Amino acid sequence: MTARLTRSTGAAARLRELLSSGETILAPGAFDPLAARCVEEAGFDAVYMTGFGTAAAMLGRPDVGLVTMTEMVDNAARIAACVDIPVIADADTGYGNPLNVIRTVGAYETAGVAGIHIEDQVAPKKCGHMEGKLVIAADEMVRKIMAAVDARIDPDFVIIARTDAVAVEGLDSAIDRAGQYHAAGADVLFIEAVRTEEEAAAVARAFPCVPLLFNWAEGGKTPPIGLDRLRELGYRIVIFPISTLLAATGAMRSILAEIATSGTPAAALPGLPTFDEFVDFIGLPEVRAAEQRYATTSRPQVVRSQGSLREPFASGRIGDGYHRDCGLT
C-alpha cells in the first residue's frame, strides 16, 4: 500500500537483469515524474531521464549546459521515487574532472537511479544533435570513466560511456574512443549522433559483444531506424528522449489555443482524462488507503509545561504589548 509513496530499491540490479536477458530495452524519455509515470503505465521496462527535456521543462531553455549537477540529480531523484522501473539518467559530462565525476556518481546512485551516461564533450556541453560540439582528449575521458567505475557503491550501478566524437572527429575516431572507454570499465557504450544506418551498423560490428545504446533522437541527426533493424544489429538499449516532451508541448499548445479561441476548454475536455481519472493515476487511492491505515481516533493534545499557553497573553502583560508594538490593535 505504501509502495507508491516511497522509493523502490534494487533498480540497478533490475537493469542488469534486463541487459542480461538478451532483449532490447526500450526506454522512452521523461522530463519529470509525471511523464515517468506515463512511461511506466504504458508498460515499458525502463525510463530515461532526458537532460534535454530537463533543461526545457525546468528552465524553459535549450540543452546547452545550463542545468547544474544538483538540479539534474534532484530531477532524477524525484523521477526514481515515483516509479518502480529502472531509471537511466543523463549525467552530461560528469560536471568536471574525475573528482567531480566521483561526486556525480555518488549523488546519482543515492538518488535511486539504475545507471547514468557520461559524455566526452568539453564543458559547457550541448545537446548531442546540435552544431558546435567539442570533445575532450580521449585519455581524459578514460580517467573519468575509471573514476566513475571506482566511485559506485552498488556494483550493479550501470556506467554508460557516451562519445560525441562522430560530429567532431568522424566515426572511426568515435569507435576508437568507445573501445578505450569500454576498456576503462564502462558497462555500455553510447556512440552519439551517428549519421546513417550504415554508421549504426558499423558501430554494432565494432562491438559485437558489448551492450550498445542507440539514441532514437526525434528529429535529430540520426535517421529513424526501425526497431526490428536495431534488434538485428544487436543494440541493447534504445532511448526515445523527447517524444513525451514534444507530445506534451503539442497538447498544451492545442488546449491553450482552444481557451484563447472559445474562452473555455470545454470543447477539448472529451479528449482529456477526467479529474477523477487523473487523481487516481497520480496515486490518490494509495494516499487514502494510507490515511485510513494510520488514522487515529484521538484528538490532538496541546502540551503545556507550566500553566496554560494562553496565560501570558490573557494577562495583558505580553499580548497587549505585542499588539501595541506591531500596530495590530
What does this structure look like?
The chain is of the alpha/beta class. It folds into two domains: 3-241, TIM Barrel, CATH 3.20.20.60; 250-286, no CATH class. The chain contains 15 helices and eight strands. It has helices spanning 11-20, 33-41, 51-59, 69-82, 98-111, 138-151, 166-169, 171-183, 197-206, 227-233, 243-262, 275-281, 284-293, 311-315, 319-326; strands at residues 25-30, 47-49, 87-90, 115-119, 158-163, 188-191, 212-215, 237-240. It has an eight-stranded parallel barrel with strand order 1-2-3-4-5-6-7-8, surrounded by nine helices. Strand 7, helix 10 and strand 8 (237-240) form a beta-alpha-beta unit. The longest helix has 20 residues, at 243-262. The two termini are 50 Å apart.
Write the layout of secondary structure elements.
Elements: H1 11-20, E1 25-30, H2 33-41, E2 47-49, H3 51-59, H4 69-82, E3 87-90, H5 98-111, E4 115-119, H6 138-151, E5 158-163, H7 166-169, H8 171-183, E6 188-191, H9 197-206, E7 212-215, H10 227-233, E8 237-240, H11 243-262, H12 275-281, H13 284-293, H14 311-315, H15 319-326
Parallel strand pairs: 1-2, 1-8, 2-3, 3-4, 4-5, 5-6, 6-7, 7-8
Helix pairs in contact: 2-4, 4-5, 5-6
